[in-house]
Every structure is written in C-alpha cells, then in structure tokens.
C-alpha cells in the first residue's frame, strides 16, 4: 500500500467566516485538500452555520468571529463575507497576526480596501483576495499560451459576458438577493473579475473608457457595460457584458461568456462550454486541448486552485498572487471605469485618483421602479 503523501506534512487549520451562498464552494475546495482541516465555521445566523457545518462535517460552529479565532487557533482565516461585514473580522485577524483570504468585493470602497491592505502589511499578516477567475483552467492555459509565444504578439483581448441570470423582477433573489439593491453592481461584482484576468493576460492597464447601463429596472445598479482598455504594451481590450442575455452553452454560468485573444500568429477563442479553439493566421480553426478542461464545479475548480495556491505559498514562504496590496491595482481600474462613465471621458490611469469613499454609495441611475409597477399588466 502506498503511504499517504500528506501524512507527514503540517496539517493546516482553517477557520471560515460566513455561511452564505458562496461559502459552499470554499468548503468544497477545503474538503478536497488532505493537508487542510476546517476547524471552525462562523455565521451570525446560527441555523445557517449549523446547516452548512453539518453538510461539511465541521463540528465547531460560532456566531462571533473573535470567539472562533480564540477557540480554534487557526493558521488561516477564510473570510466569505460581503464588504459591509468584512471590517470587524479583518481587524480581529490582523490583530492576531493571522493569514487570511478575503472574498471580493474587497472593502466597501477603495479607501477601506487600501486601509485593510496597509494594516495587514504593518502587522506582517498575509492577506489575499479571493479573486478566483484567473485560476479557472481556461485562463491559466490562455496565460501559458500567450507567454510561451504561441500566440505571437498579443494585440487584442475581448470578453463577451452573457450569464443570463439577471432578467425579471426575481433576478438574483434565489442566490444573492442583495444584488438588487447594490448602488453599483456589474462592474464591482462581475467585471472586476475580468479586469483582473485582462491584467493577468495582457499586462497593466493605462487607460479606460466606459459606458454603463441599467437594463433591468427592478435593480438599483448597472447590469450592462461596454468598457475599452488600453494596455501598457499597446494591446487593446474590450469587455462587453450584460447579465440579462445568455450565450451558447450547456451551462451559461460556467464560463459566463466567450473570449477572443488575438495575436500576430492567430486567434485563441474560448467558447461557452470551456473549450479553447486555436486558429493560426490564414489557417483552419482547431480544438486546443488543455489540462483542466473537463473539471466540473464552479469555474472549473477555480476556488480549489486559488486556495491550494495560498496554502502552498504559506508552506514554502513564497508570495501568492492577488495579495491585498497587489489587488489595489484592480480596484484603481474599477474606480476609473466608474469615473469614465460619470464624466463620459477616457480616464488615464497615470493621473487617476479614486473618488472619495462616499462616491461608492452614490446611485449611478435614478431609483428603480417598484416591483409591483414593473410586473403590472394591463388587462386586454
């Protein structure tokens, strides 16, 4: 019998804060790591913590994060909370000089995110943002393809987002109902993933131009966007997204859309079923095989890949991707997008400073109509 390769390794103790919709994907990822033990789960709703704790076999459940941190003595804290509830938990984490992963959106505004990052740095605590899209296997392969030289010189990147989950009066209510009342929605919740992926694939953003729209009148924020990007290497990018329409895919939420990478040697295309297609210049398009193409679950195992990356970084003392300090560059681009929409101008990142904190709560559009007004029909 082969010995367990993890038997002699350190067993990492992880405490999870938050038992909402997305926590299940974090816990599934931790459960698949033999060298990780989830030692506690916390949520202010004890019934929710109990249900998720029973599902994943976590015996220790708490309603106060500070109590859990003191009782469980974790090596790493996984913060799966919306921005409005992150501050107290991260303060407690930093005070104890613990390592942490924090879900996005990271902070309620740019200044708060910068304060979180600075506090962790000053305390010597590792703080990583759970920005998992770049860990989806199709984006990892696209990165390898670009940097191997197979694409040639990258000059264009575009993504067409169409998950098809944002139509009607009940949009998002079955999964993340707070989406309906967020003053800023598509960019801060969804396009931020592609800001990060575009930077991962094409390099630093030097300028943006954006037009945002609200297509579903029952929500408060934007649910459609056209954003153009200029990169430091001369490449151009386009994010064309709305959450109302779907795209050709067995599961429209698997990739959430389709991507095209254009280089001097050809075009690499991602379709809605997570297949990559390579068309060399003047050649025929062919299927491009890659590792991880058939992985099931959210984002092709993106949560597990990110969380494994953080554990490995802790184990070998290396710098992980998307530390809180590094993630601020994504948030600067995000804020520049909102500034561009509001001013109707191209925003140069070299001269850009994010707006004051209160700007994040300022509505981009008139208040939405009441649901009963939107749903009302006139009898024939």
Largest sheet features: 9 strands, mixed
How many domains comprise the coordinates?
A: 2
User: Which class of secondary structure composition applies to the elements?
Assistant: alpha/beta
The rounded Rg comes to 21 Å
Number of β-strand runs: 15
CATH fold-type name of the largest domain:
Dihydrodipicolinate Reductase, domain 2
CATH class of the largest domain: Alpha Beta
- How would the global form be characterised? globular
Structure, explained:
With 380 residues, the protein is of the alpha/beta class. It folds into 2 domains: 12-129, NAD(P)-binding Rossmann-like Domain (Rossmann fold), CATH 3.40.50.720; 134-302 and 326-361, Dihydrodipicolinate Reductase, domain 2. The chain contains 11 helices and 15 strands. The protein has a 9-stranded mixed beta sheet. A 6-stranded parallel beta sheet has the order 3-2-1-4-5-6, sandwiched between helices. The termini are far apart.
Which keywords apply here?
2 domains; alpha/beta; 380 residues; Rossmann fold; disordered C terminus; 21% strand; disordered N terminus; six-stranded parallel β-sheet; Dihydrodipicolinate Reductase, domain 2; 11 helices
């Amino acid at each position: 019998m082969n010995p367990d390769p993890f038997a002699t390794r350190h067993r990492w103790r992880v405490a999870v804060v938050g038992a909402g919709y997305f926590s299940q994907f974090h816990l599934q990822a931790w459960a698949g790591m033999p060298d990780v033990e989830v030692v506690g789960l916390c949520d202010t709703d004890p019934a929710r913590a109990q249900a998720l704790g029973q599902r994943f076999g976590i015996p220790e459940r708490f309603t106060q994060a500070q109590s859990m941190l003191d009782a469980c003595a974790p090596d790493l804290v996984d913060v799966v909370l919306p921005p409005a509830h992150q501050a107290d938990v991260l303060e407690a984490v930093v005070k104890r000089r613990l390592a942490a992963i924090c879900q996005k959106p990271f902070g309620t505004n740019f200044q708060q995110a910068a304060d979180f990052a600075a506090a962790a740095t000053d305390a010597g605590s590792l703080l990583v943002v759970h920005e998992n899209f770049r860990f989806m296997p199709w984006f990892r392969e696209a990165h390898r393809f670009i940097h191997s030289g197979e694409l040639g010189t990258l000059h264009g990147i575009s993504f067409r987002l169409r998950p098809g989950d944002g139509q009607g009066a009940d949009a998002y209510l079955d999964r993340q109902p707070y989406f309906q009342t967020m003053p800023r929605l598509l960019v801060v919740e969804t396009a931020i993933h592609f800001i990060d992926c575009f930077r991962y694939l094409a390099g630093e953003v030097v300028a943006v131009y954006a037009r945002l729209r609200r297509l579903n009148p029952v929500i408060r924020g934007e649910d459609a966007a056209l954003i153009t990007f200029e990169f430091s290497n001369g490449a151009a990018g386009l994010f064309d997204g709305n959450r109302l329409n779907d795209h050709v895919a067995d599961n429209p939420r698997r990739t959430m859309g389709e991507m095209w990478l254009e280089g001097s040697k050809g075009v690499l295309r991602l379709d809605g079923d997570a297949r990559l297609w390579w068309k060399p210049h003047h050649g025929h398009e062919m299927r491009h095989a890659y590792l991880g193409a058939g992985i099931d679950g959210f984002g092709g195992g993106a949560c597990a890949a990110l969380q494994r990356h953080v554990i490995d970084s802790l184990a070998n003392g290396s710098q992980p991707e998307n530390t809180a300090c590094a993630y601020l560059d994504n948030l600067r681009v995000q804020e520049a997008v909102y500034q561009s929409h509001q001013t109707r101008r191209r925003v140069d990142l070299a001269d850009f400073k994010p707006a004051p904190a209160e700007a994040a709560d300022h509505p981009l559009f008139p208040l939405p109509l009441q649901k009963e007004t939107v749903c009302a029909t006139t009898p024939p």
